[in-house]
């Protein structure tokens, strides 16, 4: 029995995902090409490889209770000086991401875990690079915007080479995307989702 390092995230779709990945590499972040552009729901977590079927079953259940929601990225933020990260902000969809990550990490599930920092959904565009490059990332992406309907999330595994690879996608069980980006029909969500 061995262990694997997994993560759960919402992929930033094309063309935005590749664009932000290339920008991240351009700022000097050596890990950029091994990390698909994403919003984290479960940070890197080491698990027994034999636990993967139970984890996939759990994630299937989480996805079945969710429904598509509008995602919008807009502008930049940073966790400095607490953590050496510059990110693109989530202007819409943060509440749904917060609900999802709680379900993924639920104490009754197979990947229950505490977080090092309070959950703050974001898209990392620079991590652990020099301050001047962090400042450049913060400034150059300050006007960045992207929107899409989020229809699910995926399970990833980190290889021995440090590259994250998708194992499986999980599509939400409900099919309705809110008709307006600024309107969420709270009555159709499971209790506590938003």
UniProtKB/TrEMBL annotation:
The superkingdom listed in its UniProt entry is: Bacteria
Spell out the SUPFAM superfamilies in the cross-references.
Answer: LigT-like (SSF55144)
Instruction: Tell me which InterPro entries the record gives.
Output: 2H_phosphoesterase_YjcG-like, Cyclic_Pdiesterase
Protein name per its UniProtKB record: Phosphoesterase
Question: Which organism is this protein's natural source?
Answer: Streptomyces canus
């Amino acid at each position: 029995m061995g262990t694997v390092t997994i993560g759960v995230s919402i992929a930033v779709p094309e063309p935005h995902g590749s664009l932000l990945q290339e920008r991240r590499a351009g700022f000097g972040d050596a890990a950029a090409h091994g990390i698909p552009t994403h919003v984290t729901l479960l940070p890197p977590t080491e698990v027994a490889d034999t636990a993967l079927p139970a984890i996939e079953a759990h994630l299937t259940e989480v996805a079945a209770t969710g429904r598509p929601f509008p995602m919008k990225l807009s502008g930049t933020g940073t966790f400095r000086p607490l953590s050496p990260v510059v990110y693109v902000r989530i202007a819409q969809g943060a509440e749904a991401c917060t609900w999802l990550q709680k379900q993924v990490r639920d104490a009754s599930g197979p990947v229950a875990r505490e977080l090092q920092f309070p959950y703050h959904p974001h898209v990392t565009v620079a991590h652990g690079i020099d301050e001047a490059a962090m400042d450049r990332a913060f400034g150059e992406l300050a006007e960045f915007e992207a929107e899409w309907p989020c229809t699910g999330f995926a399970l990833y595994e980190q290889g021995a080479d440090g590259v994250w690879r998708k194992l499986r996608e999980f599509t939400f069980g409900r099919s309705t995307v809110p008709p307006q980006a600024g309107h969420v029909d709270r009555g159709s969500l499971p209790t506590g989702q938003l």
